[in-house]
Amino acid sequence: MERVLVAGANGTTGKQIVKLLKESQYFEPVAMVRKEAQMEQFKKDNIETVLGDLENDLSHTTKNIDKVLFAAGSGGKNVVGVDQEGAKNLIKQSSKDNVKKFVMLSSMGADEPEQAEELKDYLKAKHNADEYLKQSNLKYTIVRPGSLTNDKATGTISIAEKLNRRGEITRADVAQTLVRSLHDDAPVNQTFEILSGNTLIGEALDTINTHK
């Protein structure tokens, strides 16, 4: 089983990702949290946890880690420190420790932050983090969902490198897409957008060309 470090494990989407990884026969989650008080909930489910602050030294977090899933965010409070520089910090450390794949939870609009009417600073930070990942030596997948809802999973999505429309998608379906993107047969060195839709997640990912 591959050990997957989940940055942002304590977040709403992060918790769903950790649960999916725990249930998977392929992956073993390592939940990265910022505060000791956040560790207990994972420990009681026998989930390995590691304390790590994206703005500080992360050298201990990626040891013996096969893949990394970045689902952290500052909730608009510190977009440069966490969403941009924090992501870059973890990318750099993952690269040093020869992590096999880095899956990034990004956001629709991060390709053109200057076009945004709202959340411009956030999208700019996500854009800079995504570009840094693309230029690293890591294999990556960058997933850009629309607005997140807390509805139940549907197991189906719409997907394209550029969907050219706005919309919503459930956090549960985003979590499933991110976990599916960790697999070796999932898109590599690709960036794509997802919204709610009618195509099964596995089939949708197969439509993204994996050979660039």
From TrEMBL:
Domain of life: Bacteria
Gene3D superfamilies: NAD(P)-binding Rossmann-like Domain
Residue intervals of the NAD(P)-binding domain: 8-184
Pfam families registered for this protein in UniProt: NAD_binding_10
CDD domains: SDR_a5 (cd05243)
Classification via InterPro entries: NAD(P)-bd_dom (IPR016040), NAD(P)-bd_dom_sf (IPR036291)
PANTHER family assigned: FLAVIN REDUCTASE-RELATED, UPF0659 PROTEIN YMR090W
Record protein name field: NAD-dependent dehydratase
Organism: Croceivirga radicis
